[in-house]
Design a protein that fits this description.
The protein is of the alpha+beta class and about 180 residues long. It is about 15% helix and about 40% strand. The chain is built from three helices and ten strands; from the N terminus they run ααβαβββββββββ. It has helices spanning about 5-20, 35-40, 55-60, and strands at about 50-55, 65-75, 85-90, 95-110, 115-120, 125-130, 135-140, 145-150, 160, 170-175. It has an eight-stranded antiparallel beta barrel. The longest helix is centred in the first third of the chain and has 19 residues, at about 5-20. The radius of gyration is 20 Å and the shape is globular. Mean pLDDT is about 75; it is low at about 5-40.
């Protein structure tokens, strides 16, 4: 009895089944990123809204930190870069208005979803977005992120964050309504 043909058929069926299961991305991403590795990657950050509000006690202990509330929306690519986009809203110490930044992100790392290097539309330095434990987001600000005043737009009034206490922000997933436009 020749077992070669049934074994080859079984292997082909198993490979096709694996491709079907893993070809579906964990979230809607550009086709260039919709590969089997990304669907299974523990590094994939879910698209959606992430936020953090710092209590008064924290702000009192961190006088160099101007960010008292931050929300970040992660969404599909709208720039045509085969990546994702981010939109950020920050409320700053002593300033009543919203401060914003947003831009395109390109994947880098072991898988292209391991970290996202994001270039804001303003003149500021790029930020890095990573998945943190518990489904949280880690926003790294290695340089000086430039935010713009929501009332005037990016060309008239900007604020730069980037002090020692504003290098990393851990944000939790929240209802999309908390992000601008949600």
């Amino acid at each position: 009895m020749n077992l070669r043909k049934p074994v080859i058929t079984a292997v082909a069926i198993a490979m096709a089944a694996m491709h079907t299961v893993f070809a579906m991305p964990a979230f809607p991403v550009s086709p260039a990123l919709a590969t089997p590795g990304h669907a299974r990657s523990p590094h994939v950050l879910a698209m959606g809204c992430y936020a953090r509000t710092y209590p008064a006690q924290h702000m009192n202990r961190s006088p160099g930190q101007s960010v008292r509330k931050i929300t970040v929306q992660i969404g599909p690519d709208t720039y045509g870069t085969n990546g994702i986009t981010f939109g950020m809203d920050a409320r700053l110490r002593g300033k009543p208005q919203a401060w914003r930044a947003g831009g395109a992100c390109k994947g880098e790392g072991a898988t292209s979803a391991a970290s996202w290097h994001c270039q804001p539309d303003t003149d500021g330095a790029p930020v890095i977005i990573l998945k943190a434990s518990g489904g949280n987001m880690l926003l790294e600000n290695p340089g000086h992120l430039q935010l713009f005043d929501d009332r005037t737009g990016p060309d008239l009034n900007t604020h730069t964050i980037g002090g020692a206490s504003e290098r990393q922000f851990v944000l939790m997933p929240v209802d999309a309504k908390l992000c601008k436009g949600g």
